[in-house]
Structure formats: C-alpha cells, structure tokens
Design goal:
single chain; mainly alpha; two-stranded antiparallel sheet; 65% helix; 8% strand
Length: 207
C-alpha cells in the first residue's frame, strides 16, 4: 500500500504530471468547498493518543504503556526525519505559492503514522480501532487539501511515509530494546528525537 500511494503521488506531482490529478482536484475543491479550521492540527495525533489512553485505562494492547510510549517516540522521530528530509529534497511549491516544502504533507504523514500505531496496538482486538484511526488520518489529509495547504500528491505521499515510519519503528524496536537493556539495564530507557534537522536522544533513569 505505501509503495502504491507513493508511486501515484510522484506521478501526480507538477514536476512529473502524468496523472494531472493535482490541479484538477484543486479546481474542484475551490469551486465547491472552502474550509477555515485548525482541526487538522489536533487530529493528526489523535489515534496515537487514543492508543496510549486505552492502555492507561487498562485496555491491553500489543505492548504495555511504557513500551507504547517509547514506540510512539521512535515512530515520531522516524516520521519527522523522513518527512522533513523529503521536503528539502523534493522542494515542491505549495498550492498557495507561499513556500517550497509541500511534498509530502507533514500533517498527513503524522496522522497516518499515528493511525498505523493504533492499528498495530489494537487492530487485533477489533477492526473498529483501525477503521477509526485511518478515518481520522484520512480526514486530516482531506482538510489539508480543502484548506489549500497541500496538493493531492502531497497527501498521498504523506500517507505512505506515515505508514512506513510506524512499520520501521515496530521492526527496529525489538532489537533496540534488547541493546538498551544490555547496555543500560532495566532501569534506563532512551527516547530518540529529531527536530529541525538535528537528531538527539533523552536518557530516562528510573530510580
């Protein structure tokens, strides 16, 4: 799914423009829909917060609350790093022409990363957790287009990057967890971070 979304996104960008979908959808949205809201700023993290909230109230997920928190930190770091660097590499102009960091959509990427996180933790308990998470993520991407912040291709690429980010985090976490326990013992954990091009980590020691 991520590979298909990313391929369609690249084919739809103005630089490639094989599908010619970006401009056509923007014209339709401008003709029939105008939205002014900041709801997308809050929606993007809702699925991940829902997962952590469920764990805190005792609904058992794939991991306990501490490991979910560490996984979310790793997921967020990978997602932020991938999305930020892709924005710099692709240098795509936004629909409004106010900047060249359009591809992929950061909000959509974060939303689909969070939705995949919820799916990983609770999708096995009920499909409705997954449906709810991906519905919120899709709504986030739709709002980014409706507000004229992003092209359709940006949102599709963001969805792909978001899903891949969480998959990478869940793939890497077991090995990382083993290495941390060997090197630091059971009383310390490391939370990675990535902000404005700078990677780092926070060590938490539980006394």
């Amino acid at each position: 799914m991520p590979a298909t979304l990313l391929t369609l996104a690249v084919l739809g960008t103005e630089k490639v423009d094989v599908l010619e979908s970006d401009e056509e959808l923007r014209e339709e949205v401008h003709e029939h829909l105008r939205i002014r809201t900041n709801l997308d700023d809050q929606l993007r993290h809702v699925p991940a917060y829902a997962s952590l909230g469920l764990s805190l109230v005792g609904v058992k997920g794939k991991h306990n609350t501490l490991n979910q928190a560490l996984l979310f930190g790793l997921t967020y770091t990978i997602n932020n790093a991938l999305t930020s660097n892709l924005k710099r590499l692709t240098h795509v102009e936004r629909p409004l022409g106010n900047s060249f960091d359009s591809f992929p959509s950061q909000h959509t990427s974060a939303a689909f990363s969070a939705a995949t996180f919820l799916h990983k933790e609770y999708g096995g308990r009920s499909i409705w957790y997954s449906v709810g998470g991906y519905t919120v993520a899709t709504a986030t991407g739709g709002l980014r287009i409706a507000k004229d912040n992003h092209w359709l291709s940006d949102v599709m690429a963001g969805a792909a990057v978001g899903i891949v980010s969480t998959e990478l985090a869940y793939w890497a976490y077991p090995w990382l967890h083993r290495q941390l326990r060997k090197g630091l013992g059971d009383r310390a954990v490391v939370i990675p971070s990535y902000l404005n091009g700078a990677a780092g980590a926070t060590v938490v020691v539980m006394l």
